[in-house]
Amino acid sequence: MLHSAFDTTRVVCKREIGGIPHEVCAEAVATPNPGGQTVKIELRAFLRSEEQTHLGETLVPEWLPKPQTVVEGAEPAEMHKVVADVFASWCRRVEEALPG
């Protein structure tokens, strides 16, 4: 059962952008409805610099999917699986958006 916010970030792959190595990241933040029958999942994608002088900096190029919010119905015992499934789908979408 998902009792509180679920926050996860996954490095989908690594790419060099403008000569600087970056991680292509997918993120999900899920919050269950207090009534326990739905979960709100906020999804976003971004690039995170691996270069020492740019650590912590993120970019959101046009080719990445735009952030979105999904609300899924689920029994409390199934919420973690529902969030994991939505996040896995989001990660595939981010990976498919990568330019050639």
Q: What are the SSEs and their pairings?
A:
Layout (H helix, E strand, L loop, with lengths): L5 E12 L2 E13 L5 E12 L8 E2 L8 E6 L5 H18 L4
Antiparallel strand pairs: 1-2, 2-3, 3-4, 3-5
How would you characterize the overall build of this protein?
With about 100 residues, the chain is an alpha+beta fold. It has one domain (about 5-95). The protein contains 1 helix and 5 strands; from the N terminus they run E-E-E-E-E-H. It has one helix at about 80-95; strands spanning about 5-15, 20-30, 40-50, 60, 70-75. Strands 1, 2, 3, 4 and 5 form a 5-stranded antiparallel β-sheet that branches. The radius of gyration is 15 Å and the shape is elongated. About 15% of the residues are buried. The mean pLDDT is about 90.
Instruction: Round the Cα radius of gyration to an integer and report it.
Output: 15 Å
Please tell me the total number of domains.
1
Element-by-element helix/strand order: EEEEEH
Q: Beta-sheet strand percentage? A: over 45%
Q: Total strand count, please?
A: 5
List keywords for this structure.
100 residues; alpha+beta
Care to give the gist of this entry?
This protein is an alpha+beta fold and 100 residues long.
